[in-house]
Write a structure and sequence with these properties.
Length: 164
């Protein structure tokens, strides 16, 4: 787990276990397996699409996302990414926030990158290439899969928020 901004950490599944044991964190589980499945208690391939928590489940100090590292950005719901970015913004002043996925390389750092775009002036926003390069200074392990990379390519300008 790496602190990339005061109170904002990016990590992997093992880091989530540590934070859950410590108990004083706000955790964003940016992975369907095993966290979304456990939170909703479903078996089989997926929870039914008409389930009220199909995309996002809120549990105490946790946001649990039905987010899979797919190659096609069409399967990355903007609603999920927006909710995660806002959850960071809402919690970061009160406690440590961990955004994690299974390996800590794609989904979770992408959510952190989007948070930086919307709520800070810490990245070079001249172009998408500059954004990624300046984010990799903070989080060198950033290696987005096709779906989240395509999502950022499609929506990065939408996240240039109040701070810019």
């Amino acid at each position: 787990m790496i602190e990339i901004h005061p109170n904002l950490f990016v990590g992997d599944e093992a880091d989530a276990s540590v934070a859950l044991k410590e108990g004083d964190w706000y955790i964003i589980h940016a992975c369907k397996e095993p966290f979304h499945r456990q939170a909703l208690g479903y078996s089989g391939r997926a929870v039914p699409k008409n389930h009220p928590e199909y995309l996002i489940a809120r549990r105490d100090a946790r946001l649990v996302l039905n987010l899979v590292d797919v190659p096609d950005p069409a399967y990355i719901a903007k609603e999920i990414m927006d909710a995660a970015v806002e959850a960071i913004a809402e919690n970061i002043s009160q406690k440590k926030v961990l955004v994690h996925c299974n390996q800590g390389m794609s989904r979770s750092p992408t959510i952190a990158l989007l948070y930086f775009l919307k709520h800070t002036k810490e990245l070079n926003t001249s172009s998408l290439v500059d954004i990624v390069e300046s984010f990799k200074v903070k989080y060198p392990a950033y290696n987005p899969a096709g779906g989240v990379a395509g999502f950022v390519e499609r929506y990065w300008q939408d996240y240039l928020g109040q701070a810019h």
